[in-house]
Design goal:
single chain, 370 residues, alpha/beta, binds cytidine-5'-monophosphate
Length: 370
């Protein structure tokens, strides 16, 4: 509870964690598995605006586009979706929701509020079925780590969780972001299933995050934290939150259709009404007529649920699994505590929403004056 209050105030420290977690953090610091060499300077007193400007100015949302070796020689230019995640610029999105998988979201009754957002981001294998009351049932993007693609228990190729949504995958590459090294030795080999999935589902938008983006986020966290943070990539949650303000997606109408047939078309197509888009889609890809997802480049506001925990804070790791471990919320491998402190500093929402809903509101980056 004391730690939770300090987290809400934004001044918690790793020294307040359970000794077991502190020990695990120390081991990760010593191991430095990804060869992190932080060259920046720590500047802990930055204001909210300064932080947002650092995020906007320095962190570039990038996905593999097939132009760099070794992917260029492997024909990835033709394999990746034709339009990059960050270049789709249709209309403005009002608000987006980022729903973490924390156990604390159980009994929150947040489902209706979550579904009222224009776009909803979820993580890994977190289901909605059976949990609609607390987590809602709309999913626009799913951010998945490389284990989801490689561990057969997730049934990545056939599970409905990974269909009709925009997929964004990532894997912890070396800090140097040397793509050749990473390709030879990924944490989990996500490349093979990615290729297979692209070939089988060419119309589903599916991207792999560029390691530079992931480590730029890490640099920002370390720069703005007094303590030494774990030299491991930020958690999916932080990655998702950082993705949302700049690249977000919108669900048009009740029936959503993946709009990939138009990705290559000129941008004025984006201003067509949803019914026109669906009719056009029907002409080309009848079977796709289940949903339309439009990538957006701007989210007015991002509402993040149960990332900075509410009063329901619990050691239950995920809302959908009977597994307890405080590390899921406070971090061992990921610098989760520090991510949360940073996000808390960016929060423009109310204390009441933070305590009761576990909700943090992040301003859209476009609205910030730098
Ligand atoms: O565990 P998993 O990575 O699938 O969860 C998705 C994200 O939700 C995490 O990366 C983390 O940012 C957030 N999370 C959390 N507290 C938990 C579980 C997940 O903050 N107890």
């Amino acid at each position: 509870r004391a730690l939770l209050r300090r987290l809400w105030k934004g001044d918690a420290s790793a020294r307040m964690l359970h000794p077991r977690l502190q020990k695990a953090m120390g081991a990760y610091l010593r191991a430095n598995k990804h060869g992190v060499r932080f060259r920046g300077r720590r500047a802990s007193g930055r204001s909210r605006t300064e932080l947002l400007c650092a995020l906007r100015g320095r962190v570039q949302v990038r996905t593999l586009d097939g132009t760099e070796p070794p992917f260029s020689a492997l024909g990835w230019r033709a394999l990746v979706p034709p339009v990059p995640l960050s270049r789709l610029l249709p209309r403005r999105l009002r608000t987006c929701a980022v729903v973490t998988s924390a156990g604390a979201i159980l009994n929150s009754s947040l489902g209706e509020e979550i579904d009222s957002h224009d776009a909803v981001l979820r993580f890994n294998s977190a289901p909605t079925r059976g949990y609609e009351k607390d987590v809602g049932n709309k999913t626009t993007v799913r951010i998945i780590n490389s284990q989801i693609l490689t561990n057969p228990s997730y049934h990545f190729m056939d599970s409905a969780l990974y269909k009709d949504v925009i997929l964004v995958a990532w894997d912890p590459a070396p800090y140097s972001a040397n793509l050749n090294l990473w390709y030879k030795k990924p944490d989990y080999n996500l490349f093979t299933p990615y290729v297979q999935h692209r070939q089988r589902n060419p119309n589903q938008p599916f991207y792999i995050l560029h390691p530079k983006f992931i480590w730029q986020l890490w640099d920002i966290i370390q720069e703005n934290t007094k303590e030494k943070i774990q030299p491991n990539p930020p958690s999916s949650g932080f990655i998702g939150e950082s993705l949302a303000p700049v690249n977000v997606l919108m669900v048009l109408g009740e029936r959503r259709v993946i709009a990939t047939p138009f990705y290559g078309a000129s941008s004025h197509l984006w201003s067509f009404s949803s019914s026109v888009l669906s009719r056009l889609a029907a002409l080309r890809h009848r079977w796709l007529l289940k949903c339309i997802l439009l990538m957006m480049n701007l989210c007015g506001e991002v509402h993040v649920y149960e990332y900075v925990p509410s009063v329901r804070q619990t050691d239950l790791c995920h809302y959908h699994e009977p597994y307890h471990d405080a590390a899921c919320t406070l971090g061992a491998y990921h610098p989760l505590l520090y991510e949360k402190l940073l996000v808390q500093r960016l929060n423009v929402g109310t204390h009441g929403d933070l305590h009761r809903k576990g909700k943090v509101v992040l301003p859209g980056l476009q609205a910030v004056r730098c």
